[in-house]
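Inputs:
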Amino acid sequence: MTQPTISTRMPSRASALGILQRYGVYIAIVLLLIYNLFFTPNFFAIDNFRTQFVQVVPVLIVALGMALVIGTEGIDLSVGAVMALAASVIPLYIGYGVIPAVLIAIFVGAVIGAFNGIMVALIGVQPIVATLAVMVAGRGLALLIANEQLKSVTDPGVLALGRDNLLGVPYSVIIAAVLVGAVALLVHKTTFGKQLIAVGGSRRASELAGLPVKRILLLTYVLAAGLAAVAGVIGTARLGASVPSTIGNLIELSAITAVVVGGTPLTGGQVKVLGTVAGALLLQFISATLIKHNVPDAYSQIAQAVIILVAVYIQRGKVSVR
Amino acid sequence: MESIPLTGTPVLEARGVTKRFAGVTALDAVDFAVRPGESIALMGENGAGKSTLIKVLTGVYQPDEGELLLSGDTTSFARPLDAQKSGVSTIYQEVNLVPLMSVAQNIYLGREPKNRLGLIDFRRMYADARALLTEYGIQVDVRRPLRSLALGVQQMVALARAVSINASVVIMDEPTSSLEAREVETLFRVIDLLRGRGIAIIYVSHRMDEIYRVCDRVTVLRDGKVVHVGDLHALPRLELVSLMLGKSVEKVDRGGLTAFHAANSSDAPPVLVAENLSRKHQIDGIGFSIRPGEVVGLGGLLGSGRSETLKALSGVMQLDSGSVTVGGKTVRSGSVPAAIRAGIVMLPEDRKSEGIVPNLSVRDNIVLAALPKLSSAGFTSKRKQDAVVDVFIKRLHIKVSSPDQIVSELSGGNQQKVMIARWLAMTPKVLLLDEPTRGIDVGAKAEVQALIDELAHEGLAIVLVSSEVEEVVEGSARVVVLRDGSIATELLGENVNENSLLAALAGERETGQADTEPAAGDTAPDETLAKVTK
């Protein structure tokens, strides 16, 4: 009766395509670093890497939230607008101190995220449409709040956030690292993370299993917007100015690229946190390499487009398990 | 009904039509013919090949073998438009017209009457549309947008459009599924009218009463083959149902084998009581109760409301009226979490799209519903999960290489066991099973059936829906038989056998008692009408 029911069959998925799908982004980073080691003077210097990491922080933080949303089979185009809104409210509340101003900026982001979530989860608007609307209206609102003006932020606390180090590591990089850890923990170790992935894998099955699907989706969009607001705060701190008109412009594209290149499928049901980090770094290293070789920025954008196509192409050939 | 000459050349005929999909033969050398003025019923259960045949007849599919004949001449429809141009029209369950355009525009879409300037002659279009609809006894403002009309009227407009494009054959696929009783009568009147003009009707429906009311001939399909062609009124309902299901009427009563549940039908208080479950067009006034340890079968043909009843019980479908109580407490309607909290869980019919989460591991699939219980402070606990997962993998004999194996790599039977494990982890009181052994190989099927039995013995109340008569009869102590969304009868004790169930499905009071055979179809409408209104 109780014979062992464990069979020894192991799925073999060690095809070349499988390896590319799983480790392609890491392989690309290693190849790029090797190239720079030989052909780019001064690339392998502590200062350069510090600069690269500081520059990647906003895209990385936004991409973390984007990965969660994409994991639910959604997408969030409003992240750049949320960054602008966060930036626009900082000068208004900086008088109360750094911490209240930052908290209010993140809260405003969360409210926008809740709006996205309500549209998607409760009303049933398609994510791309709902967040596109917020992408346009959100930046408009940010410009209204800021009176369409650039405001310099001189508060030493905020400036420290953008410029100071702890033991040689910039604060912004530390914050990003903590957030990466938190999102990884959320995805892999919490009930919410598991449910989020189940909803992305099969919304219908999740509903029939009694999961609070709407609440899960709502919270996911709140988290994504909250993370985007953090990116907006850090961006503002680095510039020393609140610039709602340009901050976070087109960042949604970089974030989506980072997530997809990192191996998270647009069809949902998976979230690759480490892959997303690697994806953001790859984009950063590519543009840095091109800049150091004096290639115009336009080419950097074209390179980004090519990478996105290659990444999606590789994923498309996903070995279907059936 | 006036007798129409049924001899002569068929207006539409299929000869030896075979259609295969990826190695599966959906239609196997099917012969089918319909003559002018004739109304023919196309019958068969799920997967019999009805819809494939219709799609071949309307040019959606090309037959792999065989040929189509139109009024005796070989023809072929490369696409649906070709079939329409040749006079073959189809009325689907859902009206496929343009909801925002006016009634008249819909009727004349693509062939609007033009005036001398080449512009649409609205006045003539409205007048023509009004005249056309009046013929069928429909009085509506033809300038109103289509979507402002009741669904039944919309369907009538679709019908009018089809017929006004010189249709010679009209195919109706479940045309009454969303109609009110009154609208159904109008539809039937229109069908009679059309037949009087020599238009042939191919009628597909699961509703027996309608079939006998509307049709005079029948073609029965089973597993892609034609198993019967003939005069419908010469065929008693019971025989028709046995032809569809492939069960012979003379089969020996096997009541002796079904008594093994007798011990379970104790007089313990019922765990679940369903009263007057109703939802428009789906189910109407369904009520029954079930005791712990009891397996109740829900019998019924496709479209009888059996799956809908399970959906109502499990909170998937919101009820218009009626109540579900578990242990004396009312369960909120239309909420899956509320049903699960009350102890009602359902194994959905479509395991692949509604059951498993394909990209997740066996472990994650098993714990999906119980996750909050297996976590502390929002963090998952691998230890707690393993305790549950290991127990169920062993107990249900789920064959996996490890709990981390992706669930979609498992066989259908093992996937079904994963689903059962997911629900057992919630320690339910009532288990609803919708086609638990569909798409499972024979060995696993027996295993799943044995498991159902075992769970009942342990005190779980089980409601079993299956389109296999044998499975219902052998698995259930009691069978509630549904027909057209209501309870037709309930079979108890010795009556739980295949013959009684077939008879109940067919809608006859006693086994073997056939409808009075109408002479030349003259008296049929009145008689069946009496049945409808009873």
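The mean pLDDT of chain B is 82. Flag for discussion at group meeting.
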